Amino acid sequence: MQTLTPHVYWAQRHGEIYLRVEISDAQALYLYNRQWEEELETSHFFFSRFVSIAQNLTIGVEENILHFKGQGHGAKGENEYEFNLEFLKTVKPEVKHKSTQRQVNITVKKQEHVWWDRLTKQEKKPLFLAPDFDRWLDESDAEMELREKEEKINKVSIESRVPFLGLKKGFLFMYNLVQFLGYSWIFVNMTVRLFILGQDSFYDTFHTIADVMYFCQMLAIMEVINPAVGLVKTGVTPAFIQVMGRNFILFVIFGTLEDMQNKPVVFFVFYLWSMIEIFRYPFYMLACIDTEWKLLTWLRYTIWIPLYPLGVLAEAVAVIQSIPIFNETKLLSIPLPKAIGMSISFSYILQLYLVIMFLGLFINFRHLFKQRSRRFRTKKRKAN
């Protein structure tokens, strides 16, 4: 009987090689090898030779060469087909295969999780070998697929380790819902007062809004605790910078100085904070129930670009305006020993805080920009 070479199609991932052999209705054929026969007779662990002998074909890997032999209906009709492939790099000796009525699918694991430039050691591609475009991915797409698989595995792992995962999602959903409602109330209230009272609303913003803002910002401390204990995967540092920076402005600058509470800067600080949060919190709230609105996603990852720097600028204005008041009132000054007879004005700390504030702006802006780039780059790849 004439021995022919079948059509073979291949694709790869970082850890595996996939081969599709175009043979249908393969019949039983055992590759005769005296050494294998002796091992079969003398050893129960025949598969230690890394040869998979099924009812319809024989497949084996020896010295990094894949051997295939089988009989079935291929490109040249009913015949015996065989081929050998010497791989570019080392593979594991175990071979998995599955036969169907139309083809034989083979999976070979790579020894190292690396991307290969080609399949075979020889540079010239064998004539019977072609890409399997049904499974073909380039390296970047394969990396994205690998990350998605790892995320699914991690999700399953977390679900198996955390029996109260539903409770965690429920807690995060309620937290984001409460914050959304709080900041929505602040934003709507300030907007309505602005339209009705005009500039006069600037001067009593603190007395109208402060109680709800105190509540929201005290609750926002959870945004530092949540990543610290592993409830969410965001970094602790960016959350700490934002939450503690806002609380410093709210409790120290506005809360301790009555003279600051009637200044227009309070309006701009509160309004800019609320404009950011009315888009951020509903985005995370919907993420807890695996729901996404494209417009909301775009707003969450875009609107901060002008608003966040403006918010920090407004905070800086508030700090600068408070420095003369702290100098005059000596409030929060640090007393020195009586022998020295003086104290360190809190205004010096505020001047240092201004430097730290703009350093924090740089850190958080870079963090948010990376988040945005990663989000929309991933969505663009999926769309392609």
UniProtKB/TrEMBL annotation:
Residues 3-120 form the CS domain. It catalyses: (3R)-hydroxyhexadecanoyl-CoA = (2E)-hexadecenoyl-CoA + H2O; a very-long-chain (3R)-3-hydroxyacyl-CoA = a very-long-chain (2E)-enoyl-CoA + H2O. InterPro entries: CS_dom, HSP20-like_chaperone, Tyr_Pase-like_PTPLA. GO terms for molecular function: very-long-chain (3R)-3-hydroxyacyl-CoA dehydratase activity. Pathway: Lipid metabolism; fatty acid biosynthesis. The chain crosses the membrane at residues 171-192, 212-232, 239-257, 269-289, 301-326, 346-369. Its main location: endoplasmic reticulum. CDD domains: p23_hB-ind1_like. GO terms for biological process: fatty acid elongation; sphingolipid biosynthetic process; very long-chain fatty acid biosynthetic process. Keywords: Coiled coil, Endoplasmic reticulum, Fatty acid biosynthesis, Fatty acid metabolism, Lipid biosynthesis, Lipid metabolism, Lyase, Membrane, Transmembrane, Transmembrane helix. It is found in: Endoplasmic reticulum membrane. One of its GO terms (cellular component) is endoplasmic reticulum membrane. It holds the Pfam family PTPLA. The keyword Endoplasmic reticulum applies. It is a multi-pass membrane protein. Its EC number is 4.2.1.134. It is an enzyme of class 4 (lyase). The keyword Zinc does not apply. Belongs to the very long-chain fatty acids dehydratase HACD family. Catalyzes the third of the four reactions of the long-chain fatty acids elongation cycle. This endoplasmic reticulum-bound enzymatic process, allows the addition of two carbons to the chain of long- and very long-chain fatty acids/VLCFAs per cycle. This enzyme catalyzes the dehydration of the 3-hydroxyacyl-CoA intermediate into trans-2,3-enoyl-CoA, within each cycle of fatty acid elongation. Thereby, it participates to the production of VLCFAs of different chain lengths that are involved in multiple biological processes as precursors of membrane lipids and lipid mediators. This is Very-long-chain (3R)-3-hydroxyacyl-CoA dehydratase. It comes from Cyprinus carpio (Common carp).
